């Protein structure tokens, strides 16, 4: 289970490692000091953009009675005379709602290491949206962190890091889906399908409520596209051929049913194919042209070839065969 912000800071403080996050400027004697709430402003680069109002209200009620028990962390005053929050914006907001005028705070320089702690703690919180996590991962990468480093810090697989990082390059429609907190696996799969049949994905997004979008419903869309039953095609030539052959339908009305493919014709189709498989929740493509070191294993490509792994046959779940 991911450590909370309090646990992480307590652990670092006890080991003395938190001291290295400052660049020569130490907090006043005793660590925290009471700072006027009006002198503190949120970090504009904070990954969290949405705060659960019910949870915030509950915290504010507790703060109003007990005060803020864990100090927040802020940067020294800027040119505007304001402290910038590094960690603890939720506590700062709750203090405002609870009617407090001051809050305990530790003043520290925002070094790269401390920023890394901030981002890690934010990502590990369960109530961040898919897009907020993606933005935090993006900030970690911009800070120079490599994918293996991020994966290790968060306790994730490297493929999970890649999925979140990939959202930044997706079309606006899919980024909106991430902001609505659709599962990252579903968003990632839709990103792959978008390149294959943008029209079918657009129609899927139009007709499917966000709460119904999951890897299961996206898998059904993939099967439809792979079977040649998508409602759209990115290839105008294909559409023209369909019109000329009389098999093109402009709507999904009940009296305009696409002809059922000839089973014999399907069996005689030729061309390269790819075998999709799953291992520990990650979907990959089996590389049949790569010889593994063992005859009881296969080489699998994940993240569009960015990661290759040799996996035992007994640990692979076969999913489907698609056009290569």
Parts with pLDDT < 50 across at least 5 consecutive residues: 12-30, 230-268
The averaged pLDDT comes out at: 76
Number of strands: 10
Tally of DSSP helical segments: 13
Largest sheet: 5 strands, mixed
Query: What structural category arises from helix and sheet content?
Result: alpha+beta
What is the overall silhouette? elongated
| Biggest sheet: strand arrangement | 1-5-3-4-2
Strand proportion: 15-25%
H/E element sequence: HEEHEEHEHHHHHHHHHHEEEEE
How would you characterize the overall build of this protein?
β8 and β9 (307-312) form a beta hairpin. The protein has helices at 5-15, 53-66, 89-97, 112-124, 130-142, 147-154, 158-166, 172-179, 184-196, 198-207, 215-226, 236-245, 263-268; strands at 33-36, 40-41, 72-74, 83-87, 102-107, 273-279, 282-286, 297-302, 307-312, 317-323. It is elongated and about 70 Å long. The longest helix has 14 residues, at 53-66. It is 42% helix and 16% strand. The strands form two sheets. Strands 1-5-3-4-2 form a five-stranded mixed beta sheet. A five-stranded antiparallel beta sheet has the order 9-8-7-6-10, covered by helices on one side. α8 packs antiparallel against α9 (184-196), α9 packs across α10 (198-207) and α9 runs parallel beside α11. It contains 13 helices and ten strands. With 324 residues, it is of the alpha+beta class.
């Amino acid at each position: 289970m991911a450590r909370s912000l309090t646990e992480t800071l307590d652990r670092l403080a006890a080991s003395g490692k938190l001291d290295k996050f400052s660049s020569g400027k130490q907090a006043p004697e005793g660590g925290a000091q009471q700072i006027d709430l009006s002198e503190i402003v949120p970090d504009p680069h904070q990954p969290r953009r949405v705060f659960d109002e019910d949870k915030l209200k509950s915290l504010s009620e507790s703060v109003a009675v007990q005060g803020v028990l864990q100090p927040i962390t802020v940067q020294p005053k800027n040119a505007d005379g304001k402290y910038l929050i590094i960690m603890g914006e939720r506590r700062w907001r709750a203090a405002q709602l609870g009617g407090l005028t001051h809050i305990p705070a530790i003043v520290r320089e925002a070094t790269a290491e401390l920023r890394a702690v901030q981002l890690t703690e934010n990502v590990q919180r369960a109530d961040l949206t898919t897009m907020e996590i993606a933005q935090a991962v993006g900030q970690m990468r911009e800070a120079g962190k490599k994918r293996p480093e991020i994966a290790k810090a968060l306790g994730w697989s490297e493929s999970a890091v890649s999925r979140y990082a990939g959202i930044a390059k997706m079309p606006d429609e899919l980024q909106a889906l991430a902001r609505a907190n659709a599962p990252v696996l579903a968003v990632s799969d839709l990103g792959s399908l978008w390149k294959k049949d943008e029209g079918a994905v657009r129609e899927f997004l139009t007709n499917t409520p966000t709460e119904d979008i999951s890897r299961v419903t996206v898998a059904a869309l993939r099967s439809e596209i792979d079977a040649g039953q998508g409602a759209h095609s990115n290839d105008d030539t294909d559409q023209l051929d369909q019109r000329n052959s009389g098999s093109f339908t402009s709507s999904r009305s009940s009296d305009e049913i696409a002809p059922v493919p000839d089973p014999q014709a399907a069996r005689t189709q030729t061309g390269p194919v790819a075998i999709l498989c799953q291992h520990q929740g990650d979907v990959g493509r089996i590389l049949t042209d790569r010889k593994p070191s063992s005859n009881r294993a296969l080489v699998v490509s994940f993240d569009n070839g960015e990661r290759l792994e040799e996996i035992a046959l007994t640990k692979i779940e076969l999913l489907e065969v698609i056009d290569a």
